Amino acid sequence: MIRVLLADDEDLIRVAVGALLALEPDIEVVGHAADGPAAVTAALAHRPDVAVVDLEMPGLDGIAVAAELTRARPDCAVVVLTGHGRPGHLRQALTAGARGFLPKGAPGSALADVIRRVHAGGRYVDPSLAADALTLPTCPLTPRELETLRLAEFGAPVAVIARRVHLSTGTVRNHLSAAVQKLGAADRAAAVRTARDNGWL
To answer: Is-contact 81 54, C-beta < 8 A?
Structure first.
C-alpha cells in the first residue's frame, strides 16, 4: 500500500480527493491537513510515502511544504496540486523538491497514476505547464531588486524594508523603481504580480 497524506485548505476538495483515492486498491490515505504547518506536522507523525499538497495554503504554501518535507522527510515524495498553475510555480516547486506538479482540473485517475509514479522514484509534470515553463523569460531583476520587491509585496513602507535589508531608504527606493521599470509595470503592486506570475518571487 502507498501511504498518502492530503493537504488542502478547502475541505470539500480534500475530502473528495480522499474519496477518489480510497477507490484505488494500492493507495491508503493516512492523514489530512488544512494548512501548510499542519501538513508538515502530519507528515512527520504519519510518515506517508507521498504527500499531495495544494499550492496555495495558509501558513506555508505547497512549495514551502515541499521544501520542508524534502529536508525533514526526504523519503516522502511531494506532489503539488494547483487550481491555476503558472510556469513559474512549476519551476519553484521542482526546485523545492516536489516530484509531481498537477493541475486540479486533471482527470480523477491521473492523480493516482502520478502518486504511483513518484512513489516508484519517478517524476510527473503536467505537459502543458512544462512546455510553458521552457519558454519563460529569464528574470531581469538583480537579487537586491528581487529582495526589496518581495518585501514590498505586502505593502511594507520603504523605511521598514530599508531596515530589514540594511540599506538606506534612498537605495531601497532606487531598487523598487528599477524593478518597476524593468518589468514594465505601472506600480509596485503590478511589478510584484508580474514577478510572481513568472516565478521570480
So the answer is: yes
Among 174, 162, 158, 94, residue whose Cα is nearest residue 129 = 94
User: Helices 62-72 and 36-46: crossing angle, nearest 10°?
Assistant: 30
Task: Find out whether 57 and 36 touch, Cβ atoms under 8 Å.
Answer: yes
What is the chain's mean pLDDT, rounded? 90
Helix (H) / strand (E) element for 27: namely: strand 27-33
pTM score, whole prediction? 0.71
CA gap 144, 80 in Å, rounded? 29
The conformational region for residue 155 under phi > 0 = left, psi -120 to 50 = alpha, else beta, is: left
For the chain, how are helix, strand and coil distributed in percent, rounded to 5?
Answer: 55, 15, 30
Tell me: the pLDDT tens digits for 110-159?
A: 999 999 999 999 999 888 777 666 666 678 999 899 899 988 888 889 99
Beta carbons of 195 and 183 less than 8 angstroms apart: yes
Q: What is the CA radius of gyration of the chain?
A: 19
Angle between the N-to-C axes of helices 169-182 and 188-197, in degrees from 0 to 180, rounded to the nearest 10: 60
Q: Which amino acid belongs to residue 195? A: A
